[in-house]
Design brief:
Blueprint lengths: L2 H23 L5 E5 L6 H17 L3 E5 L6 H8 L7 E6 L1 H9 L11 E17 L7 H10 L5 E4 L5 H13 L4 E4 L3 H9 L5 E5 H10 L2 E6 L25 E9 L4 H16 L1 H9 L12 H22 L6
Parallel strand pairs: 1-2, 1-3, 5-6, 5-7
Antiparallel strand pairs: 3-9, 4-7, 4-8, 4-9
Helix pairs in contact: 1-9, 2-9, 4-11
The chain binds D-malate (MLT).
């Protein structure tokens, strides 16, 4: 064998010998899960439900760390600087790991190349919601109201590139308006202000919306998907309510830093899949209106391909809307 090939073979043997040991001892201490938004919001809620079950499968605590800011890109950047040993992971989403590429000209990470994907966690429907005292009661009335009040209407969101920002951008592009934008560190705090009547409307994930709509503290005009959401069966779809072009589904994904050993990723993935099969987790997510992923997407390879496809899907949409994080 050529000397270079011998060296490569020796290195591969060394790696093969050490990786199973890393997986055998992993996790040797509590795992930190970075949530790139404020506590109490949709990412945080899903993460806490899944992490509780995953920690039982892993035999170690999972500590949630909320690292909010810049539409979720601050927490995502933080993960890329963590030790790639599986003890620091995160939950990102459509905003942080797809829309961010087109929105942030100076994004400090690549959503695929700088991460080790673990698996897709769930998908979430988006609902157009408003404060209870806003005059319109239907989607058609809301569209007319927004056109008439474009200069003064307040759209709450979780920062440039967040899901709430990006999905309302789509709505604005369809309606042809550019209203005022009010950024928060997550839609947990944004929802609190919507309930308090401090802001006018919010495009938000069903897991954050369902409890408030059931409690009657906010209005929901429509769900932006083809079928009604089982958690809110009285809320019409955008097609039923007269705006069929507004369709968007978002997702949460679990990721580790680039370079995390494959057997460690496999162990984290197994724990994730165990959690998603846990009847208690299923019941809690379903009650909040979240959907579990197809089995093929709850895998590292499935998630990697999915992220690449989502970046390719969102980049032209954001570019067409003419928005960047700097404007
Ligand atoms: C959150 O957890 O606050 C959200 O996922 C924010 C968003 O992206 O709209």
């Amino acid at each position: 064998m050529h000397k270079r090939h011998l060296l490569v073979a020796a290195a591969a043997a060394l790696v093969a010998g050490t990786l199973p040991a890393a997986a055998q001892t992993f996790p040797s201490r509590p795992v930190t899960m970075i949530i790139p938004f404020a506590a109490g919001g949709p990412t945080d809620v899903v993460a806490r439900i899944v992490a509780e079950s995953m920690s039982k499968a892993l035999g170690q605590a999972i500590v949630i760390e909320n690292v909010a800011g810049a539409g979720g890109t601050t927490g995502s950047t933080r993960l890329t600087t963590a030790q790639p040993d599986g003890h620091t992971i995160m939950i990102g989403h459509t905003g942080t790991h797809a829309a961010s590429v087109a929105l942030y000209p100076n994004l400090r990470y690549h959503p695929v190349n700088d991460f080790s994907p673990i698996g897709l966690v769930n998908t979430n429907a988006i609902l157009l919601t408003a404060k209870k005292t806003l005059p319109p009661n239907t989607l058609a009335e809301f569209v007319a109201w927004l056109k008439a009040n474009e200069r003064t209407a307040n759209n709450a969101h979780a920062g440039i590139g967040s899901v709430s920002h990006t999905t309302c951008l789509l709505l604005h592009a369809i309606i042809g308006v550019k209203p005022q934008s009010v950024p928060y560190r997550g839609t947990g705090p944004a929802m609190n202000d919507l309930v308090a009547g401090q802001v006018d409307y919010l495009c938000d994930q069903v897991v954050n919306v369902a409890p408030q709509v059931r409690a009657g503290t906010i209005k929901a005009f429509a769900v932006a998907q083809q079928t009604r959401n089982a958690a809110l069966p009285d809320v019409p779809t955008t097609a039923e309510a007269g705006l069929p072009a507004y369709q968007v589904v978002v997702w949460n994904a679990m990721l580790a830093p680039k370079g995390t050993p494959e057997p460690v990723i496999a162990k984290l993935n197994e724990a994730l899949r165990t959690a998603l099969a846990d009847p208690n987790v299923k019941a809690r997510l379903t009650e909040l209106g979240a959907d579990l992923p197809e089995a093929s997407l709850a895998t590292p390879a499935g998630l990697r391909a999915f992220l690449e496809a989502e970046i390719a899907k969102w980049t032209p949409v954001i570019r067409a809307a003419g928005v960047t994080a700097s404007n």
